[in-house]
């Protein structure tokens, strides 16, 4: 795997290191040892799948409060999505800043999202599917969110408004952190 750090601490893009032949390719998509060598989370307790029927479906921003914070490793396995994460770690030098990246089945990138960052994505194609490897079990009482258009963050999305967004995600209050 090839690891690229971003401007936000602990946020990393992971590219496949492919071994190709006439059959196609083989690549390691996750390895606890390699992640540890790069200072990234090595524990996975759950894998989540997000299937989205329609283009411009928005999911997020989601995160969990400590001690149930989740490290997430997100990969788009069908279609494409515009992913945004917001650094909500008050001790971080990039607190309240956001990072965007395109993830797709074609580019096969993985985004490592550390605890304390909220994540959201907008699908760019119908029938987009993503998988998350997650370091902690989902704890409903610890779930929190940020509204996709919260003025505190001024995220520039590739469309004016999502075509599909859940009531819960539409109604998160303004961020008060």
Mind explaining what this structure looks like?
The protein is mainly β and 177 residues long. The protein has a single domain (44-170), classed as Sandwich (Jelly Rolls), CATH 2.60.120. The chain contains 2 helices and 14 strands. The protein has helices at residues 32-37, 167-170, and strands at residues 2-5, 12-15, 19-21, 24-26, 46-52, 57-64, 72-78, 80-87, 98-104, 110-113, 117-123, 128-134, 143-145, 164-165. The strands form 3 sheets. It has a 6-stranded antiparallel β-sheet with strand order 1-2-10-7-12-5, with no helix packed on it. Strands 6, 8, 9, 11, 13 and 14 form a 6-stranded mixed β-sheet that branches. Strand 3 and strand 4 (24-26) form a beta hairpin. The chain is globular. The relative contact order is 0.25. It catalyses: dTDP-4-dehydro-6-deoxy-alpha-D-glucose = dTDP-4-dehydro-beta-L-rhamnose. It holds the Pfam family dTDP_sugar_isom. Keywords: Isomerase. Homodimer.
H/I helix tally = 2
CATH architectural grouping: Sandwich
Lateral strand order in the biggest sheet: 1-2-10-7-12-5
Going by helix content, strand content and strand pairing, the class is mainly beta
Subunit structure: Homodimer.
Protein name: dTDP-4-dehydrorhamnose 3,5-epimerase
Site (Participates in a stacking interaction with the thymidine ring of dTDP-4-oxo-6-deoxyglucose): 138
EC number: 5.1.3.13
């Amino acid at each position: 795997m090839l690891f690229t750090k971003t401007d936000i601490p602990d946020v990393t893009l992971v590219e496949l290191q492919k071994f190709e032949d006439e059959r196609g390719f083989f690549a390691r998509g996750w390895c606890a040892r390699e992640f540890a060598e790069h200072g990234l989370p090595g524990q996975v307790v759950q894998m989540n799948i997000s299937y989205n029927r329609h283009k411009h479906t928005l999911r997020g921003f989601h995160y969990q409060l400590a001690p149930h914070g989740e490290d997430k490793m997100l990969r788009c396995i069908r279609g494409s999505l515009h992913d945004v994460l917001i650094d909500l770690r008050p001790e971080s030098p990039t607190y309240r800043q956001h990072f965007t990246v395109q993830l797709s089945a074609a580019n096969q990138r993985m985004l490592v999202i550390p605890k304390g960052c909220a994540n959201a994505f907008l699908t760019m194609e119908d029938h987009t599917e993503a998988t998350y490897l997650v370091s902690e079990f989902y704890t409903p009482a610890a779930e929190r969110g940020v509204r996709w258009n919260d003025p505190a963050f001024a995220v520039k999305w590739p469309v004016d408004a999502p075509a599909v967004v859940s009531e819960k995600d539409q109604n998160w209050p303004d961020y008060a952190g």
